Amino acid sequence: MRRLVLSAVLAVLAAPSAALAQEVTLKIVSAFPETSIYVKRLQSWIERLNADGKGTLQLNFIGGPKAIPTFEVGNAVRTGVVEMAMSTGAFYTNVFPESDALKLTQMPVAEQRRNGAFDYIQKVWAEKGNMVYLARIVEHQPFHVYLTKKIEKPDLTGLKIRITPVYRDFFTALGATVMQTAPGEVYTALERGVVDGYGWPIGGIFDNNWQERTKFRVDPGFYDAEVSLLANLDAWKKLTPAQRELLTRQALAFEGRNDFWKTHGEEEAKRQAQAGIQVISFQAAQAKQYIDKAYETGWAGIVKVSPQHAPKMRELFSRR
Ligand code: 173
Among 17, 99, 144, 310, which is least packed by CB within 10 angstroms? Predict the structure, then answer.
């Protein structure tokens, strides 16, 4: 027994403790359900990172909204309950309301990294959210209205629509009655007839079988869906230069694969047609008015909650 203990002690002493201390494991959660394509892509990314990061940095995927509810993920990152998350701005407006402005960007994230938009986001996210904005991993995905009832013009009067902050100002301006739910509650709301439709990007409605309860998609799409990787700022500061380099490099590589979303959007539109979902579209002038209204009401909503940052964000996020 004594010999065993002694040899265990010796083994520990002999271990390359300096190198061991260099490996850190960060907990990461998803604000989207585990069935979602976003999580599938996140998990393959984590696998690659963990292979690359042996001895340096590892990510431990804790799970989706069953681990931390969708709208609480932002605060979990802010306070360091988890070190990292995949979420979208609309899910953490309870941390700071500017988060929802990311849907209004009109250029690819690669360009945001060049034109100052990314730096501005980084500053606001650090100051108001205690967060590092690591990478945007979903773009090229316009949002749409999906309906169980037909409309003849861009008017949602008399309809109850499931929303998140993304759609609140726009759908309200179109006359809808709105009801906020996490993605995980959309199917039940449709099934029970509690809502007549919902907002969602072009891709992903099959992930939770919403196509079974969807009759129409309204075109054109508006805004650009944003899903990003976030890190707690204190946890980030504690990383060694090598750990930060690895995480940054892997996050950038993930972001670099965003062209996937262009083809995915086209495929999903085809799949919707095959599932019998009919497209409601407007004539050109009406469609333009619809898009303009989306951006006007969207920015008005951001100005209202952040007169401090909205003007600069609008300038940096808008196509000239
Ligand atoms: O839940 C939502 O409709 C939403 O806000 C969102 C945001 C980004 C991607 C997908 C959904």
Answer: 17
